[in-house]
Design goal:
The structure is a single chain. It is built from 7 helices and 2 strands. By secondary structure, the chain is mostly helical. The chain has 2 domains: 115 residues, 3-Layer(aba) Sandwich (Rossmann fold), CATH 3.40.50.1390; 41 residues. A two-stranded parallel ribbon has the order 1-2. α3 packs antiparallel against α4, α5 runs antiparallel to α6 and α6 packs across α7. The chain is elongated and about 85 Å long.
Length: 179
């Protein structure tokens, strides 16, 4: 954008995923656009990654807002050129193909991510923060709670943990005793 001499105040950058159009900077950009403005987009997948939504947003921007769009990495997607029927037709076809590719890539990323997580879990990789060690008085508090001598709340308080954590750890403790 700097190479195009676009002022910083006119550059809108969202840090979150392009999976949908509920992005603060994108919404701010759309509000500021006026008819005959020119919108530069680095790549179509920077606009979004949902086929239907990309097409809908493109229609809103070009037809309703009356702006021109230039996709920098795809010169065929420049609405300033070819305002005739053939130019519009070619631009629409390229847009549809690229929108499909962007959504397909998002689907592939999610699938590869799920496969990677499953493979890691199969290898025994644990996700999340490691559990804290049980307090030294856990066994005695657990035994008194199981015997009905104290409530779960009192046992959890003795161990210095929330009741939900006490019950969760009790479940694991019971399973470990069965093994």
């Amino acid at each position: 954008m700097r190479e195009l001499s676009i002022p910083e105040k006119n550059v809108f950058l969202d840090k979150q995923s392009g999976k949908d159009f509920e992005r603060p900077q994108y919404k701010k950009l759309v509000r500021r656009l006026k008819p005959d403005d020119l919108l530069y987009i680095k790549s179509i997948d920077r606009l979004g990654r949902n086929y239907g939504e990309i097409l809908e947003q493109w229609r809103i921007l070009t037809k309703e807002k009356g702006i021109d769009i230039v996709v920098l990495d795809m010169p065929l997607l420049d609405t300033r050129r070819g305002k005739d029927l053939m130019g519009t037709f070619l631009s629409d076809i390229v847009l549809q193909v690229l929108s499909f590719v962007a959504e397909n890539e998002r689907t592939n990323i999610r699938q590869r991510q799920a496969e990677g997580i499953a493979a890691a879990m199969a290898r025994g990789v644990r996700f999340g923060r490691p559990p804290r060690p049980l307090p030294e008085n856990y066994h005695s508090a657990y035994q008194r709670w199981k015997a009905g001598a104290i409530t779960g709340t009192a046992a959890a308080r003795e161990c210095g943990m929330p009741l939900s954590t006490f019950r969760y750890r009790a479940e694991i403790y019971e399973k470990a005793k069965l093994l």
